[in-house]
């Protein structure tokens, strides 16, 4: 893509949602109003549209989307047959629009991400950037616990060797070419925040402030955040496997040192007293390390097993065009 060739690109807004009945009406209304503003100002073409992805909600989210689709003509949607997780819901939306747009913007349904940043994303796209990442500038609306866990999340990911931008979630613009590059990555346990760094196309960042959630609750409690982080680490890093080798070497060195010390005590002193602690504690310690190592290896083998079956990431139960 060369800068200036596309004056008014056809844009698709891809919005995954799960159990968002308390806010989805407002989300549909505000995203439609915003997209019409983009169309009226010739930032995007008049055939741009919104794609909602219901990730198997068990509340009335899908019924609300369906009933509002006729009222808001820019709205399209798909419903997954069951909850497949945020990343697979994004992939479902991305695949459904891949042949129908020049670029896409993915954003959350909770309206916390400032949609005005899309103006700058489109400007960067017109300049020739094919990946534009939305970076959160502050966490003033977060609790102290949320701030600390979020900071720890990014630091741990980076420490483990995962190439990821701090405070970037899944708010980004992708050109059609970047979109199709990502869709060539067929792993079921995909981690999109890392995937966008793999494709190698020209990228940049825009910055935005978040807003308080208008209604409903976050669908990413600490347990899901930890699971998401672990998925990202095991998808893009073998650092935990390398750590097993390092820890094993350290224990080996310590065991040699302990053996030499024991021999010294037995040969050169009269202080050698057989004890329970010196026998049992090392067994517990080494046993714990072995179980931890087996568990880490098992996580990687489990992912290999899941990927080897090549099962579909999702099933579309219903679609509104």
TrEMBL record:
Subcellular location field: Membrane
Keywords: Glycosyltransferase, Membrane, Transferase, Transmembrane, Transmembrane helix
Glycosyltransferase 2-like domain mapped to chain residues: 13-180
Main localization category: membrane
Matching InterPro entries: Glyco_trans_2-like, Glycosyltransferase_2, Nucleotide-diphossugar_trans
Membrane protein topology class: Multi-pass membrane protein
Pfam family for this entry, one: Glycos_transf_2
One cellular-component annotation, GO: plasma membrane
Residues spanning the membrane: 243-267, 279-301
Protein name, UniProt field: Glycosyltransferase
Organism annotation: hydrothermal vent metagenome
């Amino acid at each position: 893509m060369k800068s200036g060739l596309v004056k008014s690109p056809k844009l698709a807004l891809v919005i995954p949602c799960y159990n968002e009945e308390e806010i989805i009406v407002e989300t549909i209304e505000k995203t439609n109003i915003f997209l019409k503003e983009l169309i009226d100002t010739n930032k995007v073409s008049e055939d741009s549209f919104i794609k909602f992805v219901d990730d198997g909600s068990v509340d009335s989210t899908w019924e609300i989307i369906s009933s509002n689709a006729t009222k808001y003509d820019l709205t399209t949607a798909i419903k997954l047959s069951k909850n497949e997780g945020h990343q697979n819901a994004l992939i479902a939306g991305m695949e459904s629009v891949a042949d129908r747009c020049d670029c896409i913007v993915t954003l959350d349904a909770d309206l916390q991400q400032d949609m005005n940043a899309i103006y700058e994303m489109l400007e960067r796209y017109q300049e020739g950037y094919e990946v534009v990442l939305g970076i959160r500038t502050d966490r003033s609306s977060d609790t102290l616990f949320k701030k600390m866990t979020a900071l720890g999340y990014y630091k741990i990911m980076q420490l483990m060797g995962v190439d990821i931008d701090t405070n970037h979630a899944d708010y980004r613009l992708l050109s059609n070419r970047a979109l199709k590059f990502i869709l060539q990555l067929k792993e079921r346990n995909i981690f999109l925040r890392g995937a966008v760094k793999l494709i190698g196309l020209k990228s940049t960042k825009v910055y935005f402030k978040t807003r308080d959630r208008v209604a409903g609750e976050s669908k990413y409690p600490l347990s899901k955040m930890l699971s998401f982080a672990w998925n990202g680490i095991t998808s893009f890093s073998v650092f935990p496997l390398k750590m097993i080798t390092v820890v094993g070497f350290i224990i080996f060195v310590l065991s040699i040192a302990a053996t030499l010390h024991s021999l010294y005590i037995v040969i050169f002193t009269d202080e050698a007293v057989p004890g329970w602690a010196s026998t049992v504690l090392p067994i517990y310690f080494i046993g714990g390390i072995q179980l931890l190592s087996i568990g880490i290896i098992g996580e990687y083998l489990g992912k290999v097993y899941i990927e080897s079956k090549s099962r579909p990431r999702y099933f579309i139960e219903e679609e509104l065009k």
